[in-house]
Amino acid sequence: MSKKEKKTKGFGKENYKASLQRLQLELVKLQRHLIKNDLQILIIFEGRDAAGKDGVIKRITEHLSPRETRVVALGKPSDRELRSWYFERYVAHLPTSQEMVLMNRSWYNRAGVERVMGYCSETEYENFMRSVVPFEQMLIGSGMQIYKYYLDISKDEQERRLRDRRVDPLKQWKISPIDEVAIEHWDDYSEARDAMFRRTHTEISPWYVVKADDKKTARLNIIGHLMSLVDCPDKDKHAEQPDAEIVFPFDEIYLQKKIIAS
Q1: Average pLDDT over residues 143-163
Q2: Which residue in 40, 29, 37 sits closest to 64, CA to CA?
Q3: What is the pLDDT of residue 115?
Q4: How far apart are CA 197 and CA 85, in angstroms?
Q5: Of 3, 40, 26, 20, which is closest to residue 233 (Cα–Cα)?
Q6: At 179, phi and psi to the nearest 5?
Q7: CA 217 to chain centre
Q8: From edge to edge, which strands make up the β-sheet containing 40-47?
Q9: pTM of the predicted protein model
Q10: Contact 146/44 with Cβ under 8 angstroms?
Q11: Do residues 125 and 110 touch, judged by C-beta distance below 8 A?
């Protein structure tokens, strides 16, 4: 049994609830600090279908003020948006002063779903890949804090979760046409993800990979990791610390060693 498996199996339901509550209290401290200091925080969540983005976002926002917290999950672009500057539809949803915005998928759709499913041309893809890093640098230079998380799951786990969606009546709203071909295009998504990491992981705007086969472990570690990154003087430095085997900055070596699902 691996170290990760031992940790996951030892995660009792009560331990999870208690740990989550402690971390959510830390998030409340962060929000007070954000409001007091007129900060702007953008958190981007990417990952394969059924990677657990919804669940993570729900736990982060559960006890935060809805006036200063927004979740952005954009649908299919309109004809007008398709004819506009690619980033325009996202700019309208960026955080303003005192706000935290969580994007459930983002402009990186172009590097993932659009790339794999042929929803954009090669020229559009290349234009995006060349412009996204300068775009993020501009936002960060204006004072915005950006944190990018990619939730990584195994092929077996994705198959299991997508199967559950089809039979669970409470999860029917999650089903999309993309689900039907997610497994079929597994290798294509892996290739697109790897290119995205290599070309858009920078020192100023890094990608953090999250091992997300165990949803509860992923949720706790993402919140703990976020709190470890933000500058919040009131935070408890002794609160749950992120596990470096669960959340870690992208590095080419993790692809070579297949630590990131391939």
Answers
A1: 97
A2: 29
A3: 97
A4: 23
A5: 26
A6: -55, -40
A7: 15
A8: 69-72, 99-104, 40-47, 145-152, 207-211, 247-249
A9: 0.93
A10: yes
A11: yes
